[in-house]
């Protein structure tokens, strides 16, 4: 792995970084639109993508993915953005958490939003609805998927926080990490200049500035 970092170390490093900083250093291109956290947010989700494609409103292949789950995986489900039936709820998210998943991302709906909202296990989705899923298939696992307009490949690094979800290939992730940390340092200095009343508007002129 580049810069001497193992994959697990690289993922751990992204777990303390904000998605806006990552997005800025990916030319603001990758990013899932319309997905939000439903869990009790208290940190950053980061892990490897275990991808699932399923027909709208059907969760048979999500159940299959749970049996293939490895600790540290983020289950990423392309449900076509369909919000008419929930694809997962409290039971399936609890199973994923008990098997060491880093989180679950659903381009579709969930249910049991109250229970999921009291739990710190990361769960991102489009909406919540009481109607349950079909369980007939078809579907696919570990194939490229599209969630909220963002393409995610099997094994990509997936990061999520209060601002949403972003994913990127592990190749090049070490260089991305360095760029994100550099921007984080620049922004920390800008915040310090604001507190000390010496800010001169430099951020608006800097590459990557947007706030």
UniProtKB/TrEMBL annotation:
Binding positions (Mg(2+)): 112
Residues that, per the record, bind substrate: 89-92, 111
**Cofactor(s) listed in the protein's UniProt record:** Mg(2+); a divalent metal cation
CDD domains per the record? RraA_family (cd16841)
Highest taxon listed in the record's lineage: Bacteria
- Which Pfam family, giving just one, matches this sequence? RraA-like
Q: Which UniProt keywords apply?
A: Magnesium, Metal-binding
Q: Does the keyword Repeat apply?
A: no
Give the Gene Ontology MF terms in alphabetical order: metal ion binding
InterPro entries from the xrefs? Answer: RraA/RraA-like (IPR005493), RraA/RraA-like_sf (IPR036704)
Among PANTHER family, the record links this protein to: 4-HYDROXY-4-METHYL-2-OXOGLUTARATE ALDOLASE 3-RELATED
Q: What name is this protein filed under?
A: Putative 4-hydroxy-4-methyl-2-oxoglutarate aldolase
Q: Which organism is it from?
A: Mesorhizobium ciceri
């Amino acid at each position: 792995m580049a810069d001497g970092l193992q994959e697990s170390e690289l993922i751990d490093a992204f777990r303390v970084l904000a998605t806006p900083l990552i997005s800025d250093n990916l030319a603001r291109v990758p990013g899932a639109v319309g997905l939000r956290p439903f869990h009790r947010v208290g940190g950053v989700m980061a892990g490897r993508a275990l991808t699932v494609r399923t027909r709208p409103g059907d969760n048979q292949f999500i159940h299959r993915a749970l049996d293939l789950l490895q600790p540290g995986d983020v289950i990423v489900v392309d449900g076509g953005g369909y919000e008419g039936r929930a694809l997962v709820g409290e039971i399936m998210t609890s199973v994923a958490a008990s098997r060491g998943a880093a989180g679950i991302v659903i381009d579709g709906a969930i249910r049991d939003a109250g229970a999921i909202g009291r739990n710190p296990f990361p769960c991102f989705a489009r909406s919540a609805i009481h109607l349950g899923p079909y369980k007939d298939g078809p579907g696919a696992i570990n194939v490229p998927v599209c969630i909220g307009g963002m393409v995610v490949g099997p094994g990509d690094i997936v990061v999520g926080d209060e601002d949403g979800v972003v994913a990127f290939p592990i190749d090049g992730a070490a260089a991305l990490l360095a760029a994100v940390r550099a921007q984080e340092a620049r922004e920390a200095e800008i915040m310090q200049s604001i507190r000390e009343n010496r800010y001169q508007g430099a951020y608006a002129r800097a590459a990557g500035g947007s706030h």
